[in-house]
Design a protein that fits this description.
The complex is a heterodimer of chains A (431) and B (259).
Chain A (H helix, E strand, L loop, with lengths): L1 H10 L10 H9 L2 H10 L1 E3 L8 H20 L9 H10 L4 H29 L7 H23 L4 H12 L8 H9 L6 H30 L18 E3 H26 L29 H9 L3 H13 L4 H4 L11 H21 L5 H28 L20 H4 L8
Helix pairs in contact in A: 4-6, 4-10, 4-11, 5-6, 6-7, 6-11, 7-8, 7-10, 12-13, 12-15, 12-16, 15-16
Chain B lengths: L1 H22 L21 H13 L25 H9 L2 E4 L8 E4 L13 H7 L18 H9 L16 E2 L7 E2 L20 H16 L3 H34 L3
Antiparallel strand pairs in B: 1-2, 3-4
Classes of the chains: A mainly alpha (431), B mainly alpha (259).
Chain lengths: 431, 259
């Protein structure tokens, strides 16, 4: 066992990697793919990463699942206003295992967002967005934006009532832009209402965006591999060192275990509650003459929908909704604290959980009619959302008294703070 | 480990409670035991066959089922009529085909590959015959209504005298479970309306249950296959998860000794 560990340690430096076989050397001198593979397997990873860190791998799985099932669906789907709904039913009924592919794809979108929200909130808790990881974070925000665009357009494709009216509501937001708004909306629609030209271009873009995301994910991981992973303690660690383990097999097996747990939840939705996350109205074919009683987006867009509706002015509502997302991009500069992990920031930790509650509340009121008490709650929650990022975070960095931070993951902190137990995360031991 | 379980249970609670919040605004629906619910849920074959009878003798005079074909009636997981029975059912309908070599449309008896014959030629004709209201296509009706099977089952039995103070226009009926309580469809079922071939007593409740079961199958024809595969997939995943868990413990024990 000890020798194995030694071997792992020796392999961890990838600077002087040389393939063993002649053919391998010949190939690698011309295209260093084997060096890349070696780097990926030996990549030194903090050994105290907890399960919140497994969602990167889970998200990669989600993206690949969506692309593979999406390609298969596209072979049978017909992007035409008169045939889209019928072709989806054709997939559900007559295509071999079409129901399985479609339910994986539809629920896969929800699973994708579930994982990305955990991934984002993990980053918020452990300060992963802070220097030197700003670029990773910004790339992540761009990926998230593209995911929302892809999900929205994907939801339009079955051409049900919610597809049609969701598309109408969201594209109409652009009409809030002064002077050119109406023109932009007509341009987006390819006509004077949401119709066949809108559907075909949404299909094209829905097909394109995942590959843009894939490219950005490569950059996201590349940028990650420059400084290396943040960790629950949030301190810089030497790599490689006894604070790290090689990515393979340690992180691969742990990510694999977490992914399997995730897949069990995923499978439960696909096989036993495939329509629970969708809206019943989307099984009614799109009808421009009949407006649904409540037009609601998918659950993962509800917090932003609540922000949009909480502002009485249309233009300002759109601005607020976009700002709510874009504000995240400048988060590394809004958070003035030098300490990354919330474990050592007693005040930030409390505000963090208030923010989580705030976003959940926004999601809830986003699903409710925008009137009375719901509207009031939405307004307060929206105001707090911006307050958190624009006031609380910058001020907290100066005012907060942080706890002593350990020098390394393996060496306990000097002067035993009560939070030490939390800092040395239990998960790293896998009890 | 403990945290991981907590995490996943929180996720499930959030997702499930979120989706239920949409349906929470409706009245309490009538409940009955559906054989197709649950991990191993299957359709009640006899109920599906009776449900088809109710559909074809009652509903089909106004409601189309344009995504179904007669062959579906003989397919596994459905009513499972014998192929001869399904052929006979198909042949009892007149299907317009053509044009033939003379350029003329003609009618012929239906075949297994034909879609269910529609009661009206188009939406306008359907509206004209029904006082302006369009009887919705029933192929995916169960999935297109918030309350699903419970809603349809309740609606069929929800006709009542309008309470004092509620005035109904001509051709509008009162229904406890309808959104807004006003419905353009007259009570479609009543005790003894059809005569079941298998001797089952055709009460309103029985017919409602049978036809709703049939509609559930028509909306989810692969439900049985889905449940069977789901059970296998989840058992497989759980076994694999346990194996990977122990592999992980073994691999990480090398590091453990150092920590």
């Amino acid at each position: 066992m000890q020798t194995q560990l030694k071997l792992d340690k020796e392999k961890m430096s990838d600077h002087d990697y040389r393939p063993k076989s002649k053919v391998g050397q010949w190939f690698n001198d011309r295209l260093p793919l084997l060096t890349l593979a070696n780097h990926l397997t030996d990549y030194p990873t903090p050994k105290n990463l907890n399960y919140w860190w497994t969602f990167g791998g889970i998200l990669t799985f989600c993206l690949i699942t969506q692309i593979v099932t999406g390609l298969t669906l596209a072979m049978h789907y017909i992007a035409h206003a008169d045939m889209a709904f019928e072709s989806v039913e054709h997939i559900m009924r007559d295509v071999n295992y079409g129901w399985l592919i479609r339910y994986i794809h539809a629920n896969g979108a929800s699973m994708f967002f579930l994982a990305v929200y955990i991934h984002i909130f993990r980053s918020l808790f452990y300060g992963s967005y802070k220097s030197p990881r700003e670029i990773i974070w910004i790339l992540g925000i761009i990926i998230y934006l593209l995911m929302m665009a892809a999900a929205f357009m994907g939801y339009v494709l079955p051409w049900g009532q919610m597809s049609f009216w969701g598309a109408t509501v969201i594209t109409n937001l652009f009409s809030a832009i002064p002077l050119v708004g109406e023109g932009i909306v007509t341009w987006l629609w390819g006509g004077y209402s949401v119709d066949n030209p809108t559907l075909t271009r949404f299909f094209t873009l829905h097909y394109l965006i995942p590959f843009l995301i894939l490219g950005l994910v490569v950059l996201h991981i590349w940028a990650l591999h420059v400084p290396g992973n943040n960790n629950p303690v949030g301190i810089d660690i030497k790599k490689p060192s006894k604070d790290t383990v090689p990515f393979h097999p340690y992180i691969v097996i742990k990510d694999g275990f977490a992914l399997l747990m995730f897949m069990i939840v995923f499978a439960f939705f696909v096989f036993y509650a495939p329509n629970i996350l969708g809206h019943a109205d989307n099984y009614i074919e799109a009808n421009p003459m009949v407006t649904p009683a409540h037009i609601v987006p998918e659950w993962y867009l509800l917090p932003f929908y609540a922000i949009l509706r909480s502002v009485p002015d249309k233009l300002l509502g759109v601005v607020a909704m976009l700002s709510a997302i874009l504000i995240l991009a400048v988060l590394p500069w809004l958070d003035t604290s030098k300490i990354r992990s919330a474990v050592f920031r007693p005040l930030y930790k409390q505000f963090y959980w208030i923010l989580v509650a705030d976003v959940l509340i926004l999601g809830y009121v986003g699903a409710m009619p925008a009137e009375g008490l719901y509207l009031l709650i939405a307004r307060v929650a929206t105001a707090y959302y911006f307050l958190h990022f624009l006031v609380i975070l910058p001020v907290l960095g100066f005012k907060e008294k942080t706890l002593p931070v350990p020098l390394s993951i393996t060496e306990p902190v000097l002067g035993g703070s009560p939070n030490l137990a939390a800092a040395r995360n239990k998960e790293s031991k896998i009890e | 480990m403990k945290n991981l379980f907590k995490l996943f249970s929180i996720i499930i609670i959030i997702l499930v409670s979120n989706s239920y919040s949409f349906a929470a605004e409706k009245a309490e629906y009538l409940k009955t035991d559906w054989s197709f619910k649950g991990l191993f849920g299957k359709f009640d074959r006899a109920s599906l066959q009776r449900g088809y009878q109710v559909y074809t003798e009652v509903c089909a005079s106004c409601h189309s089922m344009k995504y179904l074909s007669y062959r579906n009636l003989a397919e596994p997981g459905g009513p499972e009529f014998s192929e001869a029975q399904a052929k006979a059912i198909a042949a009892s309908f007149e299907v317009t085909d053509g044009p033939n070599s003379d350029g003329e449309m003609f009618t012929r008896p239906g075949k297994l590959s034909d879609k269910f014959v529609m009661p009206y030629d188009n939406v306008k004709a359907a509206q004209a015959a029904n006082g302006g209201a369009y009887p919705p296509d029933m192929s995916v009706l169960v999935k297109a209504r918030g309350g699903g099977v419970d809603y349809i089952y309740s609606l069929l039995q929800g006709y009542d005298e309008a309470p004092v103070g509620v005035t109904l226009d001509d051709g509008v009926y009162y229904n406890k479970y309808m959104y807004g309580n006003k419905i353009r469809m007259a009570a479609p079922l009543s005790d003894g309306l059809v005569e079941y071939g298998d001797g089952t007593n055709a009460t309103l409740e029985q017919m409602s249950k049978d036809v709703t079961t049939f509609l559930m199958w028509s909306a989810e024809p692969h439900l049985e296959a889905r449940h069977q595969m789901g059970f296998k997939a989840i058992v497989y995943l759980i076994i694999l998860t346990v194996l990977v868990y122990f592999s992980m413990k073994k691999i990480w024990s090398r590091v453990e000794s150092e920590v």
